[in-house]
Amino acid sequence: MSKLEKIEFTAENLARYKEYLTRYDDIESALLPTLHLAQEQFGWLPDHIVKYLAELMGIPEIHIKEVISFYDMLYDTPVGRNIVHVCTNITCSMFGGREIYQGLLKHYETDFLTPTRDGRISIQKMECLGACEIAPCMRLNNDFLGNVDLQTAIHKIDELP
Ligand code: FES
Question: What is the pTM assigned to this prediction?
């Protein structure tokens, strides 16, 4: 998206944003869902999006950037259209999580979070995804995949748009 293009929420997302505001007593509490909404629309959260949100919400840009840098699932660098989270924490690692992560990076010729050449995916190693009972596990966008091996992971990732 060109920086010269007008940056603003779509009418539908603006309505969702306004609905978020009704859920909280203060506007800062609505920041996290608003950032996820912005990322959903714009793909990632570069400076010009942060500026738009700062003006929209009346929250200092520096504070918004701090929040983005704190959370693993908010991105201030470009990412692929699909996000692949691979758990490499202890339980999943005992069942091959780290090897799956390394195997995926090698297969897709990429590195941590770096979008593949076609821009289709970014692969991110994560701490516990909260699904240790299906270790080793990963998440393809919002869908969990458990008891996975490298070949199954590649097969499922290749089905992503
Ligand atoms: S250690 Fe992987 S989901 Fe908990």
Answer: 0.86
**Atom in ligand 1 nearest the alpha carbon of residue 129:** 3
Pocket-forming residues, ligand 1, beta carbon under 6 Å: 87, 89-92, 128-132, 135, 137
Q: Where are the domains of the chain?
A: 11-70, 82-158
Interval 99-152: pLDDT, tens: 999 999 999 999 999 999 999 999 999 999 999 999 999 999 989 999 999 999
Measured from the Cβ of residue 52, the count of other Cβ atoms closer than 10 Å reads: 17
**β-sheet bridge partners, residue 143:** 140
Please state which CATH number belongs to domain 82-158. Answer: 3.40.30.10
The answer for residues whose C-beta is within 8 angstroms of residue 114's C-beta and 6 or more apart is 122
CA 93–ligand 1 middle distance (angstroms): 8
Residue 74 CA to ligand 1 center (angstroms) comes to 20
Two structure tokens written together for 122: 């970014």
**What's the 111 CA to ligand 1 centre distance in angstroms?**
21
Tens of pLDDT, residues 18-73: 999 999 999 999 999 999 999 999 999 999 999 999 999 999 999 999 999 999 99
Angle between helix 31-42 and helix 61-70 axes, rounded to 10 deg: 80
